[in-house]
Every structure is written in structure tokens, then in C-alpha cells.
Amino acid sequence: MGGSFNPVHTGHLMVANYLRQVAGLDEVWLSLSPANPLKPDAHPVDDAQRLEMLTTALAGSTGLRAIDTELSLPRPSYTLRLLETLSSQYPDYHFKLIIGSDNWQLFDRWRDPETILDKYGVIIYPRPGYDIDEPSDSRAQLVKAPTVDISSTFIRDSIARGIDMNYFLPLSVYNYIKQHNLYI
Question: What is the pTM of this model?
Fold first, then answer.
């Protein structure tokens, strides 16, 4: 499950944990992305700080792991390159890509989407405002997970306006944001 996690919030963690259990996954690896070529970010935060927040958020969790593999890959970063790198580094593991229904609607614009589907498969979770039907493609699986209408953009904008985001973020992440004066 990739993302810029700028910042990681409770919605990310709730979805990852739910999918791990309901989709029968051993683990969900949350891969920190340097930048999404289809979603330019107007509020960039240093990769190391985003990784620290993600690692802090997952401390003590069961079955969720933060990885930074994508940060060391050539840019622009493409998901297929990440999946191939992970498969090479962990040949005994079988990887699947987890994406939201918003990204599924754009999936044909990704780099080599057919190769991703053929070699790895895709698990799709619903995102508010991006309703989709069950994919007719057997390489993709829609998991009827609860939708969480929280976004990193909403959190960044709220923090910039001085709104307390304590319950939208893991406490360790919120403390990190305040300590480092991020998003103000």
C-alpha cells in the first residue's frame, strides 16, 4: 500500500489493518513514495520526516510495516519498479498492490498497469466519491471496506488553520508535527 503519507493519518491505518484481516494478508507494507506523478503535492515535507511519522505511527502494530524502498529507486518512481524490487529482495514473498478506488479509476494511466495486474494483482478499497462496481478483471479484487473520509490534504489544511487534529492522527504523529512545526 503506497502513498506519500503526508502525513500518515488514522484513515490510512484503519484501512491497512482492516484489509490485512479481511483480505487474508499476512502483512500490509506501507511504502513511502517520494511523489505521485499523478498527484502533485503543494505541501512537500522532507522524505525523512514523512518516514519518521510513518514509522512512529506503526510502532507496536501487528501485521503493518513501514518500508522506504521506493525512496532509493530512480525517479520518477513507478509502482511496477517498486514491486519488482521487492520481489527480487524477498523472493519467498508474494506481493499484491493495494490501492483506493480513486486510483483504480486512473489505473490505466499508470506505468505498465497490465504487467502489475499480471504479475501481482490488485486489491481495491473504496474511497468516498469514487464508487466502482466489482471489477470484471479477475486480477483485481474489490474489498468492501468501510470508507474513511479523511485525507492528508484535509489534515494539512486544518493544521494550517490552527484546528486541533489530535483524533485524526496517531498521537505520536501529531506530536511530531507540532514538535517540528509542520504544515503551519
Answer: 0.93
Q: Tell me: domain 2-149, CATH 3.40.50.620, correct?
A: yes
**Residue 151: pLDDT above 80?**
yes
**Per-residue pLDDT at 42 exceeds 80:** no
Any idea what DSSP says for residue 162? T
What is the rounded CA–CA span in Å between residue 143 and residue 56?
A: 27
Q: What is the model's pLDDT at position 36? A: 62
How many Å apart are CA 78 and CA 36, to the nearest integer? 9
- Contact between 30 and 74 (Cβ < 8 Å): no
DSSP string for 16-58: HHHHHHHTT-S-EEEEEPS-BTTB--SS---HHHHHHHHHHHH
Please name the amino acid found at residue 148. Answer: V
Cβ-contact 87, 96 below 8 angstroms: no
Q: How many CA atoms lie within 13 A of 51 on its CB side?
A: 13
DSSP 8-state secondary structure symbol assigned to residue 15: H
